[in-house]
Amino acid sequence: MVTLGGSATSSHFEVFQGLEELFRRRGIDLDWILYSDYDAMVDAFVKGDIDLAWNGPLGYVQDQAPAGPAVSRHSDARFEDLLGRRFAFGRRSSEQAGLVPYYVLKQSGLNPDKDLSAVSFYEERESRNTSDERDVVERVASGEFDAGAVSRRTLELMVEDGSLTGHPVRVFWSSPAYSHCCFTAQQDMEPQLVAQIEAAFLVITGSDEVERAVLEGEGCSSFVAGVEEGWEIIEDAAVTEGLV
């Protein structure tokens, strides 16, 4: 029996139900547990209570111890141009809209809390928008903030649905590419079982209703093999901020 853990969200509930069915088709018995938050899931993985963890990038780094552009209303903005400006972040717990951009600003020589006239995380603002990244973009577009941090995918979706039509928002810097969410297996799991699990993910193509539901729940068109590279910027940021 393989036990999979994740955070308690409606999408994970649906996805894990589908994975249970798809794994059993390939002869793998899968059970799953949903935890109240990522921290509880990470703790369970570290303790060995679960075999697989559906991790965000910070969770993966914590277990082992989507590139996020910044947007601006100014066409020629550079990091030094942010001095005295107002900067909006997404959630503090968001790697692409909180942790990494805050770390990058510090690495560029700026002290966000001293060198910017205003610094705001999503949790500190009153917002009717349930998406922290859309909130950032809308506030930059309105002129409330001069710049902010979001994922490129958020900008693409807002362009697709017309949310950015006519707004003077543009990308002035993008981070290097880095790895994001992943399924993580315990290091002492039998190699043959690991290979079976990886194969079970890689053959999901959306060929039937169950496969389509899993892919739609994760917002992707397929799963790819995991890599050990591409986590460095997350790890550096997490260490700098005392998170690991």
Automatic annotation (TrEMBL):
Database matches in Pfam families: Phosphonate-bd
Protein name per its UniProtKB record: Probable ABC transporter phosphite binding protein PhnD1
Q: Which organism is it from?
A: Geodia barretti
